[in-house]
């Protein structure tokens, strides 16, 4: 049996570490997500972990980038499955909200909270958040088929993302799914009545 190339093994090790970091952040929080805990969870030695990520800050920052890239891949894949017609807007809003109530968001929330009191982490996190905000907005516009050149439409799309984030925060301490479904339905109605929507093909973003 041929041995796995060293480069592939290194890539696989790195991915296990990033996924273990996200899982630990989501399940146990910032304080418990140390390099040692992540290494053990990933089944990787501490030395090998620090070869890939010399500091905890390097590991957390890379995990945030990985979360961002993973979510964008999912968003592009989901675009082709958005139903046409009247159900389209509600489906898009529902999927945006699902992201903010999922484990990736809960993991990112731990990092944001820590970064608020840590200048070094804040300097690392802010550029990533700005990038994510821009791409999330473009993705929402594309999935909705909206005319973002219209100022009102631009504000409504941004309000949709802000609403989704707020619903995600409400879900952190308790299951808010029943109320959330009602809000998603109501907001989709507002968007349908207010947005300039192109009923043509949905654009799939490439970055």
Summarize the structure.
The chain is mostly helical and 207 residues long. It is 74% helix and 0% strand.
Structure explained in plain terms:
- This protein is 74% helix and 0% strand.
- With 207 residues, it is mainly alpha-helical.
- The radius of gyration is 19 Å and the shape is elongated.
How far the N terminus sits from the C terminus, by CA atoms, comes to 38 Å
Radius of gyration: 19 Å
The low-confidence runs, each spanning 5 or more residues with pLDDT under 50, are 199-207
How many helices?
Answer: 9
Q: How many beta strands in the DSSP annotation?
A: 0
Give helix and strand order, one letter per element, not per position: HHHHHHHHH
Determine the structural class based on helices, strands and strand pairing: mainly alpha
Which range best describes the helical content: under 10%, 10-25%, 25-40%, 40-55%, 55-70% or over 70%?
A: over 70%
Question: Biggest sheet: strands, sense, closure?
Answer: none
Instruction: Report the portion of residues in β strands.
Output: under 5%
General shape: elongated
- In round numbers, the mean pLDDT is 84
Layout of strands and helices, then pairs:
Layout: H1 6-28, H2 35-42, H3 46-52, H4 56-79, H5 87-100, H6 103-115, H7 119-144, H8 151-170, H9 177-194
Helix pairs in contact: 1-2, 1-4, 1-6, 2-3, 4-7, 5-8, 5-9, 6-7, 7-8, 8-9
Which short descriptors sum up this protein?
disordered C terminus, mainly alpha, 9 helices, 207 residues
């Amino acid at each position: 049996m041929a041995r796995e190339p060293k480069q592939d093994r290194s890539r696989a090790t790195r991915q296990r570490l990033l996924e273990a970091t996200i899982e630990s952040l989501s399940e146990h929080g910032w304080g418990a997500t140390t390099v040692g805990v992540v290494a053990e969870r990933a089944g990787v030695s501490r030395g090998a972990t620090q070869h890939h990520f010399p500091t905890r800050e390097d590991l957390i920052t890379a995990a945030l980038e990985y979360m961002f890239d993973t979510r964008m891949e999912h968003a592009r894949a989901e675009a082709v499955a958005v139903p046409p017609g009247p159900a389209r807007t509600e489906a898009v809003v529902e999927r945006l909200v699902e992201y903010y109530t999922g484990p990736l968001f809960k993991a990112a929330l731990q990092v944001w909270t820590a970064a608020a009191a840590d200048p070094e982490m804040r300097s690392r996190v802010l550029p990533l958040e700005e990038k994510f905000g821009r791409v999330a907005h473009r993705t929402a516009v594309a999935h909705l088929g909206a005319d973002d050149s219209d100022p009102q439409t631009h504000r409504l799309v941004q309000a949709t993302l802000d609403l989704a984030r707020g619903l995600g925060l409400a879900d952190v301490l308790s299951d808010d799914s029943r109320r959330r479904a009602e809000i998603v339905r109501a907001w989709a109605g507002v968007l349908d009545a207010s947005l300039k929507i192109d009923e043509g093909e949905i654009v799939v973003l490439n970055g």
